[in-house]
Structures are given as structure tokens and as C-alpha cells.
Design goal:
There is one protein chain. The protein is an alpha+beta fold and about 140 residues long. About 35% of the residues lie in helices and about 10% in strands. It has five helices and six strands, in the order H-H-E-H-E-E-H-E-E-E-H. It has a two-stranded antiparallel sheet. Strands 2-3 form a two-stranded antiparallel ribbon. Helix 1 (about 20-30) runs antiparallel to helix 2. The chain binds zinc ion.
Amino acid sequence: MTDRGLNFPAGTPFLALSQTELRRVAGECITAPLWMRVWLLALADANRIGHAEFAPGDLQARLGAKVNPNTGAVVAVSPQAVSNAVRTCKQHQLITPESGTRCLVLSHHLAQKAGHGTRSCRRHGIFVHEAHELHEGQK
Ligand SMILES: [Zn+2]
């Protein structure tokens, strides 16, 4: 682990993204494919262990509307459409198989978050104590 909390293999290029802007784009770009918007929300809400938790119905509410590519009509995002989008993200390996509509999980090799943020997930029953984090940092 580095002093910035990131641990990509040596030589791996990486970049930092604004989670605030990712959240905005996911909500506003209703012409984008729904699976892409779900992935943006996974990135936007990821905590220090790559989990993005959502209250029941929250993921659907935050996606709001989408444009039907066949008709051009703006329609409300349905729960089934959210589930399908999550499944597509899994197929593309953008989120891990343990993901669902209540928690989107990013793999460590894809995304890591430094700085502030929780290291827990109620949905998956994970809580990392700070003492453990310090122990890992000393390795
Ligand atoms: Zn989780």
C-alpha cells in the first residue's frame, strides 16, 4: 500500500475522477446506455473498499429516466431495467458478481479510492477496522 492508499501493480497507469461529476453525468445523461450509467454510479458512490451501497429503490430513483432508443420517448427507468443494467455491467466485468441493485462492487484491479471514505458495507456485512488498515499499511 502506498502513502496515498492506492495499490496498483507497478507500472500500471491510473487516473483520478471526480465522484461528484460522475454522479451528475449518471443522472443527467439519459441518452446513454443504462448499464453505463449504472457503472458511473458504482464509481461515483464507491467507498474505500469499492462498495457503493443504495437504499431499496434508490438506484432506480437516481437513474430516473432514460430515452427509449427505438422511439426517442423519455420513460421512467423500471426496476427490471435496473436489474438488466446491473447484469450487463457484470457481463462486462465492470462490477463483481456479488453486486446487486443494493450494492455495486468494483474490483480492486479496476478502481481504488484514496483519501476519505468508509471501509464498510452493510449489504455485504463488511467492516474494516482502522487498526487492521494500519496493520496492512505496515506490510
Ligand atoms: Zn457491498
